[in-house]
Amino acid sequence: MAPQYAPSLRSRLFPLLICLQTSFIVIFLFCVKYDHHISDDKLLYAEFQDVNVMVVLGFGFLATFLSRYSFSGSGFNLLVAAMAVQWALILNGLESWYHRGQIIINLRSLVIAEMCAASALISIGAVLGKTNPVHLLLIALIEVSGFVLNGLILQTYLRVKPLYCTMLLHIFGAFFGLMMSWVLYSEDSEQQHEKEKIHRRTGLFSLLGTLFLWMFWPSFNSVLVDPNDHQRKLTAVYSTYLALSVSAVTAAGVSVLSSPTGKFNLVHVQSSSLAGGVAVGVSMSAVREPWVAMTIGLAAAVISTLGLRYIRPHLLSAFKCHDTCGVLSVHGLPGILGWLAHLLLQLADSDDLTTAIRCAVFNICTLNVTLSLSMALGVIAGMLLKWNFWRPPQEKKFFDDQAFWEFPHLAVHK
């Protein structure tokens, strides 16, 4: 049971929230305007809502699997997403502000901001339950800044298309979070925490989050495709749906096969069912045939399930890295698989050796830049979070809502 008197974050969290939100309002007052010159169609609004559901409900419910951390998993998800979206709108609009003197907001910019927030939520999954809300807000600010910077570098120096830069959010977010977890490692974390377990009720809510993500992932992967290119947009939807379908079936099979008792593992099935959407999202610009999308979904599910079964338990002992939500197996490895599939498909479409070599070099540089920047910023963020000024929770307060939320039925009456 959590200590009766957990340290109050009032002197840290309230000033941070008020300062950030006030600063954002001031920036929006002088620099941000709505885009009244274009008429976003109803389809884009529907896709925006799909992405919004994924970020708020999908990731929110997905983070409720811990038996005594469901309030924090869902509530902090909304807090971080709301703040990260505002910060992403500002950063993504700096180029517009530089050239036009103002930041323009439309549905497309909101969708991009939501995806930046999703990248931050992926990073937070690696340290879920071991941080406080102040930490999570700082992580979101640093991670979103790094992700926007990564896209700027790739587009400026490697001429990478904006859509592909955005889809790298899975790789960037996963390895950012892993490096944070590695820096935050302590000798007291050698064994699994007694509160790091799943309850039947919280597991059901977490599965509901998976269902939301699974249903709306085709919109997530296709929303930023040029709306005038209907064929390419529909291809992205078809490919994502097929990859998700195959990954759901494959994850169930591999989970049963790898289980000592021959039973399904809830975490494996619900997490690895999404691996196909991650992998095909990174590679979708090169996917042309249904069987290719299905093959990517199958390979992603196999890698993800085996990673959760065999790699995740050894991360702590071998690499001193505790991955709460298994972001390496759910987002990192499938993301790299998608990058590899994208590279191979582009090489197969190349007409000559010179084009193939150029393609390979640019793809390898893209991955190296993304990994290097995400891991470097993850180390910096982890070092910042270790500062005692933010009142990091003690080991005995990990994975427990009572450190942060009011529970009237547990109040002591004098």
Describe what you observe in this structure.
The chain has a two-stranded parallel sheet with strand order 1-2. Helix content is 71%, strand content 1%. The chain starts with 9 loop residues before the first helix and ends in a 29-residue tail after the last helix. The protein has helices at residues 10-31, 42-62, 70-92, 94-100, 107-126, 133-157, 162-167, 169-183, 200-222, 230-258, 266-272, 275-283, 290-319, 327-349, 353-385, and strands at residues 32-34, 103-105. Helix 2 packs antiparallel against helix 9 (200-222), helix 9 (200-222) runs antiparallel to helix 10 (230-258) and helix 12 packs parallel to helix 14 (327-349). The protein is globular, with a radius of gyration of 21 Å. The mean pLDDT is 90. The protein is mainly α and 414 residues long.
Key terms for this structure?
single chain, 414 residues
Distance between the termini: 21 Å
H/E series = HEHHHEHHHHHHHHHHH
Tell me roughly what share of residues is in helical segments: over 70%
Low-pLDDT stretches:
none
Radius of gyration: 21 Å
| Average pLDDT over all residues | 90
- Counting DSSP H or I runs of 4 or more residues, the number of helices is 15
Task: Please outline the major beta sheet.
Answer: 2 strands, parallel
- The shape, in one word, is globular
Class inferred from helices and paired strands: mainly alpha
Q: Can you count the beta strands?
A: 2
**Relative strand content:** under 5%
